[in-house]
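Example record

Each entry pairs one chain with its bound ligand, iron/sulfur cluster.
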Amino acid sequence: MTSEKEEQSRKFPQYLCKMCGKCCKSITTEYTYEELKKMAKNGSEAAKVFIDIFKPYSSIEQARKIVSEQVDQVLEELAQLKDFDINKITFYYCPHYDEENKCRIYENRPECCRRAPNNPWSCMPPGCGFEGWQFEQRERIKKEVRKLKEYLVAAEAVAEDGIVPGKNITIEELKKIIEKKISPLEKYGSRLW
Ligand code: SF4
Ligand code: SF4
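Structure tokens for the complex follow.
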């Protein structure tokens, strides 16, 4: 584990989990089931662990029969993402929770369960203990993106001959550096922040 990952792991507020088990019944990923199987076949350990543990509902309607509120909330959130395609969405459930929604393999649960929600934009079920934390994280990241954009505008305003004053780079290079930092967030709407 890199030191950056260790740091993130240390900061992850796992105590916020209410252990309600809702997310164990309404899991989705950014990949289709077919893509996950292919990734597992090609050696992705994370994809292999995922398809070993989680079972796909046969359709969104079947998932809705079990966890309708969760399915609707997740779909509503996903619909705001760039390139959303409902035909690519599969819902999964885990066979390892008991009648009281407690994890039967808690000590050995996979990393994706230990780290859920995986990122501030992960679609979590209504009432998830991480709602406030996710909101704070999203706002913090939006603020950072805003600062980068403002920095670029300010640099453009004072540039001389296309060079950023005090830095040994051109405005075009600075623009590329900033775009590279922001582009992974584009699917969450960073162009509008
Ligand atoms: S829905 Fe949220 S609070 Fe409930 S078990 Fe999952 S991560 Fe924990
Ligand atoms: S392994 Fe445990 S924590 Fe993970 S989804 Fe299944 S029941 Fe939930």
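Residues 14-129 form one domain.
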